[in-house]
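Exercise 7. Given the encoded structure of a 73-residue chain, write a plausible sequence.
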């Protein structure tokens, strides 16, 4: 399945995403390209609802370190 509808369960992304918002998640892009600034990245957790992370450029690079890995640079 390349597309999935997910519901936002908490206010952790407020005001960008609000509780109850639905988003269409497309699952193939990061096999073709790396994530970029202003992408919203979701991670599935089998014990919780999905987690969404919004990568946004900030003055301090340490704010982005949670989204950096060997795979995504």
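Solution.
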């Amino acid at each position: 399945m390349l597309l999935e509808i997910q519901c936002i369960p908490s206010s952790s992304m407020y005001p960008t995403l609000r509780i109850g918002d639905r988003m269409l998640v497309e699952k193939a892009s990061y096999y073709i390209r790396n994530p970029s600034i202003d992408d919203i990245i979701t991670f599935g957790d089998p014990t919780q609802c999905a987690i969404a992370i919004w990568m946004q450029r900030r003055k301090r690079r340490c704010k982005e370190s949670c989204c950096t890995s060997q795979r995504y640079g």
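Remark. Residues 29-32 form the longest helix (4 residues). Students should compare their own answers with the one above.
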